[in-house]
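task queued by scheduler; priority normal; single chain, no ligands, no partner chains; default sampling; output format set to structure tokens
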Amino acid sequence: MREAYSAINPSDQSYHLVRIRQGSTVQDIARGLKKAGLVRTELDFSRYALTRGGNGLQAGDYYLQRSQTMSQIYARLLEGPNTEVYRKLFIEKRAPYARQLQGQYRVLASINLAQTILESHWGTSTLASKYNNYYGIKAQGSQKSVEMSTREYLNGKWVTEKDRFAVYANWQAGMLAHAQFIRNGTNLNASQFKDVLASGNYRDAAAALVKDGYATDPDYAQKIVAIIENYKLNQYDS
């Protein structure tokens, strides 16, 4: 029995997503864990969980490792979704491309990453998850687009209005479009984001995003800076 509850592979540090839906039974959870290769059999986890009551296992997205024992997996499910792991993986997945784009377009990687986090709510917004637009970039001309509601800060108050947003094939295309958008500006003003490009650090660049009209939110620069400093995104600028 001890073998059944031990780690599948103590040396495997990769993460595997297990999505637990609201109302899932212990058996449903066991099935998901087995499918992800995190337990040897569904019965192993069901037996382990039920002998401990099987209560308090929370719904949500979990990033688990095959190096975790049954007790560690069970404890994680009791504690709740490990959002911090999702965010770590979200950043690590995009950081290399953000650095590459910085070299090509002079848009700081930290700014690129912070904007995708803020604008897409860590990739969970409809615009990001369905249309690969992680930056709230509005469509220009005949560009492929989708009409969606957006909140803008106008004349001292927040208003909701409809607008056309660009649609991209994948997240890489969206990141590239963001860098090109900052570098090339809009159809009406090719040098619109010149202050962003001229900024030598993330604080100045964040302030320039507001000055150059990327966002209407008066607190946008502070939000970008807070994200960069909280997740140490400026490490990718060098």
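post-processing summary
- The chain has a mean pLDDT of 93.
- Residues 2 and 37 are 18 Å apart (CA to CA).
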